[in-house]
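ok new one. same drill as before - structure tokens go in, u give me an amino acid for every spot. 98 of them this time. try not to just spam alanines like last time pls lmao
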């Protein structure tokens, strides 16, 4: 299992229609085959500058690669993410097995 997460801050004003529209568009990524346990999250801690997060899981690297290269995902990145996200951090995890 791979857990794909990204924390981010938008260029839009908090609570604005543009912010809501972006988040709704981001939530459409759940429709891509292989996406599991999708969550769109709002940051509540003052410990970092990010406002939101996306989290999802994939069964394996093949499913993660399918998502990463899917036309809907690449279009979202080009048309929405790049122009509208101010700052982000992306993390991909697999379970640690000692």
């Amino acid at each position: 299992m791979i857990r794909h997460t990204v924390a981010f801050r938008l260029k839009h004003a908090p609570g604005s229609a543009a912010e809501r529209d972006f988040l709704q568009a981001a939530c459409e990524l759940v429709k891509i085959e292989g996406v599991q346990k999708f969550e769109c999250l709002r940051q509540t801690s003052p410990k970092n500058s990010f406002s939101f997060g996306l989290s999802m899981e994939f069964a394996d690297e093949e499913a993660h690669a399918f998502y990463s290269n899917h036309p809907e995902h690449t279009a979202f990145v080009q048309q929405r993410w790049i122009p509208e996200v101010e700052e982000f951090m992306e993390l991909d995890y697999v379970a640690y097995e000692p």
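DSSP finds three helices and four strands in the chain. and btw The first helix runs from residue 17 to 27.
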